[in-house]
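=== RUN LOG ===
request id: a7f3
mode: sequence -> structure
chains: 1
length: 137
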Amino acid sequence: MSGFEEGFGEGFQSGFALDDATAFTRLMFELYEYRCAVTGEQFAPSAQLPHPELEIFLFLPLAAGGALSFGNATVVEGAVKGLMAKGLVVVDDNYWVLGKDGARWTRGQMLWRHADRAFWPDRALMARHREYFQRRD
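=== RESULT ===
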C-alpha cells in the first residue's frame, strides 16, 4: 500500500532520527511565526511538542517517498491538516487555497508563505497532492 492509499497519514520513514523531525518541526513553526498557512491564524508559541494547535502537513507523505523539507511542508491547524489529508483542501500552483464544496472547488485565500521563497512549498509537490485527489473524483 502506498502512502497515498494510507491517506496522507503521519509516520516517520524507517531510520529517520526523531531529533531531526523535532528540530524540523520547531524550525517550521518559527518560520511560519506559529501561523496556520491556510487560515492565516497565528497562535502562541509553545515549548512543547506537539503544539496544541499547529501541525506540519507534508504534501507528499514520507510513506510515499516524501521528505521533511521546506518544499514538501507547510504549517496548519490540526483540523485543516485533516481536511488536506482527505483532499478536501488543496493548494493550486499560484498558492491559492481551494476547498471542495460538493462536486466543485471554491477558491479561498492565498496560502501564507515566508518572505524568503526558499521556504515556500514546491509547486510540483502541491500539484502531486492535488492531482491524487482529483483523479479519485
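=== NOTES ===
The helical segments are 18-31, 78-85, 123-136.
The two ends are 20 Å apart (CA to CA).
=== END ===
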